[in-house]
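Ticket #4471: complex job returned nothing on first submit. Input attached below:
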Amino acid sequence: MAAAIRQGRRKRRAECETGGLLFGKRDDALRVIWVDDVIGPPPDSVCSPEKFVCGIKGTQEATKKRKEQSRGSMEFVGMWHTHPQDVPLPSTTDLSGMAQILASGEAPPLRSLLVIVGWEHDGILLGTSVFNRGLFRGGNGIVGVAINHFPGLKT
Ligand SMILES: [Zn+2]
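Support reply: We reran it on our side without changes. The output follows.
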């Protein structure tokens, strides 16, 4: 994640959001999502100071590759992106993006993870939200949100 953020700063203005996909394992019975691998923005992503719209180019191949390498245990578990100028909490754009993920594909996941990276003067803030497909009707779908502060950690 840090490498993708640094690469984004070299390519674009520092205030532009960037992001990508999270891969790992999801255990709905234990209500745990493990993140084992991360990729940066697909080439057709939109990175601006206002928003990050994750592209889809190469994402199916990236997912397939990880699934094969892990003999089926690693899968797509969610998304990550940065909020360089805002708190690391989901925006309305983020909520609709997660609703879309939980409704798309042949077998949409029951839960999906959204990790948002933000900054404090002395370190980074990680905002982690778990979304539940069933709760999007009439609500925002969030079942858990946590913001963790990591003083001294830089990207
Ligand atoms: Zn966002």
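The mean pLDDT is 89. Closing as resolved unless it happens again.
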